[in-house]
Amino acid sequence: MCGVSGLFSLNKSSKINLNIKNMCDAIAYRGPDSDGFWVNEKDGAALGHRRLSIIDLSEAGHQPMHSPSGRYIMSYNGEIYNYLEIKNTLEGKGHKFIGHSDTEVLLCAFEEYGIQETLKKLSGMFAIILWDQHDKKVTLIRDFMGKKPLYVGWAGNDILMSSELKAFHTHPDFPALVNPDHQALYFKYACVPAPYSIYKNVWQVEPGSLITLDINGLSTGQHLLPFMEKYWDAKDIVKQNAAERKKPLSDNEAISQFEALLSTCISERMISDVPLGAFLSGGIDSSAIVALMQKQSTKPVKTYSIGFEVEGFNEAEFAKNIATHLGTHHHELYVTPKEALDVIPKLADIYDEPFADISQIPTFMVCQFARQHVTVALSGDGGDEMLGGYRRHFMVPPMWRKMNMLGHIPRHMASKAINAITADTWNKIGATKGHPHLADSMDKLAGIMRQKDHDSVHDYLLGFWENPYDLVPNAAPVDLPFNNLDWNGKALSFAEDMMMRDSLSYLPNDILQKVDRASMVVSLEARAPLLDRRIFEHVWTLPEHMKVRNGKGKWLLREVLARHVPKDMWDRPKKGFSPPLGPWLRHELKEWAHDLLDEKKLEDSGLNPEPILKVWHDHQAGRRNHAVRLWSVLMYQSWRMRYS
């Protein structure tokens, strides 16, 4: 895994050598093993690369790398898991290879097949900057599911591109102006969804997309989103497989097929020239990955988990039991509140764009822990989105069916009636029934009831601040790819529609962003077998009952895991991977948070303090648990202090 950067100067700046070096230095941790540069001052073009050596540790894997004819120069971050298969085919066509890196194979394939045809053959994760010496065009490519990030934007007369925004800040002409429209998106989703970034004139390449730019045909500051095109569209996969989902399939056949495919994807991701292990939380996804890894390994797999010394927030004991059953070489780290709190000042640096998924803290800590022993770690990311693992997938549809019988107007009136009762009253009622925080649940119920349809229900459940424009008064709504319904989503059930939307939105913009930054800042490569595009394409040939059944999600993955680990070791309610933020904000973090939520500081950030401070006071009084909403503001303020 690596860090990539590119710079293309419209006025052929003489400083491109210095600027590309500074860009790479800013993300050196993504590739601590070596750096490399290619500069063509005549064309005003430069590529940079920071290398984390995983496959072919020799100089033969050094980047930027030229294609065999010299037409293409590439800086590439990622892994092509089926590169040996592609290499064998290319060798059959007469191609010779110097080393055994996937980079060399990828470049050779681009020359042999062209860009679009090559991408159809790949299984992997990647962010690619590809310069065409012949046509004077640069192509930026992001992998199918959005595992690896790639930004592009303007700094004066220069087009910048890199794995992270840190690299942009090194350029003397980068203005770093916050876009208020995208600022509002952040407060809605606690991250900035692709294709946008927090800044004006900077964009993210969307998953499954590429951007091709004719450097000689651009004008300074030109809007670049019109150049983005899909080479692989998840929505098309759903449409194309509609008939397949109606075909009869026995349970045993479905389980065996899925286990075989997942085993293949895991096997490919176990290829490494450096030490390899896996994250093990004790949940279904990571346990299934580790079980199938251990089945294929001749020695104990190295597994890693962390636990919190706080009742109700610790799953390390479950992970340990599963590790013992499977016979892995297990490592666990118990984290004290102080150790977790000490991570918070680092978050603005780790996530150089506002980001507020509270599980970013333990994710960073388990990556840091694993990196002490391994350079590559497999994870269970992707199972929830594709196989119905979130509560909203299996709990909300039956609830909504009952609510929807009321009709929109009565439902809206019922929502108002719930909200008319004070939080203190709801909590008093709840206390008598063993539910002291009933106000939070009733507020969520009221929020669902006032939505008009499936789409708005999911958007509400995905959101943090329901109306972010209360916080950012100068913002205006923008179009989002995952809210574009021209693909006829009505062919899907409510649960399937939410899974699809989560795969397009929550997965790449939150989950994968979180894991990429947390792992790469400690120079660890995280691989996710469940995010193989073949897995995605396969699960969308299966009917809903293979995913959600008997009021539970991930039926198919559960059944695969049950073949290797007894159910009583993992069949329990999903907990998530989060520290006790609510109590922290009332005690250990209160002073820190109070300072960041100063009214003048909020105004200086372009925010309306009134709704924020109301939520803060309600949380401090114990009337509600507003931890996640407050965290989004605190992370924004912390980020602004670091980068303003």
CATH arch. level architecture of the largest domain:
4-Layer Sandwich
CATH class of the largest domain: Alpha Beta
SSE-based structural type:
alpha+beta
CATH topology (fold) name of the largest domain: Glutamine Phosphoribosylpyrophosphate, subunit 1, domain 1
Summed up, the domain count is 3
- In helices, the fraction of residues equals 40-55%
* CA-based shape: globular
Beta-strand portion reads 5-15%
Kindly describe this structure:
The chain has 644 residues and is of the alpha+beta class. It has 3 domains: 2-231, Aminohydrolase, N-terminal nucleophile (Ntn) domain (Glutamine Phosphoribosylpyrophosphate, subunit 1, domain 1, 4-Layer Sandwich); 236-340 and 352-389 and 501-569, HUPs (Rossmann fold, 3-Layer(aba) Sandwich), CATH 3.40.50.620; 580-644, no CATH class. The strands form 3 sheets. It has a 6-stranded antiparallel beta sheet with strand order 2-3-1-9-8-10, covered by helices on one side. Strands 4-5-6-7-11-12 form a 6-stranded antiparallel beta sheet, covered by helices on one side. It has a 5-stranded parallel beta sheet with strand order 15-14-13-16-17, sandwiched between helices. α2 packs across α3, α9 runs parallel beside α10 and α17 packs antiparallel against α19. The model has no long low-confidence stretch (mean pLDDT 92).
